[in-house]
Structures are given as structure tokens and as C-alpha cells.
Amino acid sequence: MSDPLDALEKSISSLRRAIRAASAAGDSERAGELRAQLRRAERAWDALIDTGDPAPAPPPRAVAGVPPAAFGSQLPAREHVHRALMLLGTPAAPKLIVGVHEAFFLGELSASKLSSLRRDEMRSYESSPGARPYYLCPALAHDLLTPARALITISTWTLEQRIIGPLSPRVDFLTGAIRVAEAIHTSTTSTGSEPRPAALRLLWRFAANIPDAMPRGAHGHESALDPQQVIDAARAELDVHLDADRATRAEASRQARTSLGEAQQLFGAPPQNVTPLRARA
């Protein structure tokens, strides 16, 4: 699995290609929106480069595929949340974010710290738009484009990635399972280090809700899990739902680009100002 910098670099490359394609097609509105996403992604890349641990202490043991540079017990809560979300690659609720942080990173993070984080992020954006390299934002409901309850995303993600449709919770669950399993698999195959017990417990919670992801006779023994089996099982089910979910998200993102300003594309539209997509059709 790639680290957060790798993921951002891939996102930046994809955005640049998409900008070229939109410009070639004469879609200036789409190109402008993509350029704004590119600027946010580049600021996020700069911020991650600047947050490396300067202390001369020996680097910590790599855990579950996460590079030592990703550790940092003294980082603020928003940085811990950012790193957990980058590992998952999907919108997530506070409980899952805390679980991912506990499994893969050092430092303390509690769900209570996340309760006011989204409001603080929105206030920061309103006071100085674009001053931060990224913002923690709510996911957006596909029909009303309003904030989805208790789901946090990152502003540098595409609109499609930040929108939640009817199938998205299951798609994101399966995607998260794959990302967690890939991290553990990378650790055990390339570095030889053992996964943390919290990482295995997290993978177990995913696997228990995916058909054919659990080995026979495991019965509560997290260490018996095979990350590759979880990956294969999750991908098999993901193939069933992915195309329909992408179509819903793409339709909602097109509507968001035409009806919402940049701030509302990040933090959602007020409910009283939005007509459901089905009513517009």
C-alpha cells in the first residue's frame, strides 16, 4: 500500500491528466473545478512534506505498511484524522477513524476530539478560504448535496469520492477493508514486522462482515486471518456494486459543480436551499 505522500502524488497526476482532458474537450467549468482540486492537493502535499519528525531519536518500528515518517505522537488531532483517512481512502465515521489511528499510528485520538472538528474546519475556511493545505469536511448526500451525518472526508479528494449514494456505505466499507488488509499484508511480506494487535482486530471487524473473508475454524483468533483472503473476498463483492455506485456519485458531482459554490462543494449545501436530484430530473 502506498503512503499518504504516494497517494497524493497519484492524485495530483490524475488531476493534471483530467485537466488536460477537460480543456481539450472545451469544458472550462470542469477544468476550473479540477484546477481548484489540484491546488488543494498540492498544498496538502507540501504540508505532509513539512510535517516530518525533526527529532533525532531513532525511527520507530514500521507498523502494517505505514512508513516511520507517518508517525507523530505530538501532532494535532486534525493531522491524526487526516492520516487515518488517507490510509482508508474513503469517508469514515469517527469510531472507524479512531480505530484506524489506533491500529496504525502513534499518539492519542478519541472520538470526543472529533465532535467539534468539522465545525472548526468550516470556521477556518470561512475566515480564510484556502489558507490551509487541506480541510476536514463532511461527506455530501447524493440527493440533497447536504452534509452527511458523522462522515468525514478530506477537501483534496474529488467530489465523487466525497459524495455518499445508496450503495456508497457498502462500497466504502469494502474499500476500507482492502486498504487495511493491504497495509497489513505489506508489513508482513516486505518488512517482516508483525502487525499490531489493534490492526488485526480492525481487520477482523471488517472480515466478519464480508462473505468468504474469514478462514475456516478461525473462531475469534485474529492472528488466523489471511489479509490476502480478505482482499480477494472484498474485491469480489466490490465488483458487484462499484459501477452503480460510481454512476450515482458521478451524477451527483456534476450537479454539485453546477449548483454549488466552492465552499458548499466542500461543506455541503443548506438543506432549505436544495431540491432533491430526483425532482430535478
List keywords for this structure.
globular; mainly alpha; 281 residues; three-stranded mixed sheet; 6% strand
Question: In percent, how much strand structure appears in the residues?
Answer: 5-15%
* Radius of gyration from the alpha-carbon trace, in angstroms: 19 Å
Specify the number of helices: 12
The averaged pLDDT comes out at 81
Alpha-carbon distance between the two ends: 40 Å
Structural class: mainly alpha
| Biggest sheet, spatial arrangement of strands | 2-1-3
Largest sheet: 3 strands, mixed
Helix content: 55-70%
- Taking pLDDT < 50 over at least 5 consecutive residues as the criterion, the unreliable ranges are 53-72
The tally of beta strands, per DSSP, is 3
Shape: globular
Order of helices and strands: HHHHHHEEHEHHHHH
Protein described:
The N and C termini lie far apart (40 Å). Strand 1 and strand 2 (147-154) form a beta hairpin. It is globular, with a radius of gyration of 19 Å. The protein contains twelve helices and three strands. Helix 1 (4-24) packs antiparallel against helix 2, helix 8 (168-191) runs antiparallel to helix 9 (197-207) and helix 8 crosses helix 10 (227-259). Strands 2-1-3 form a three-stranded mixed sheet. Helices cover 58% and strands 6% of the residues. Mean pLDDT is 81; it is low at 53-72. The protein is mostly helical.
Short overview:
With 281 residues, the chain is mainly α.
Fold topology:
Layout: H1 4-24, H2 28-50, H3 77-88, H4 94-104, H5 111-114, H6 117-127, E1 136-141, E2 147-154, H7 159-162, E3 163-164, H8 168-191, H9 197-207, H10 227-259, H11 262-267, H12 277-280
Parallel strand pairs: 1-3
Antiparallel strand pairs: 1-2
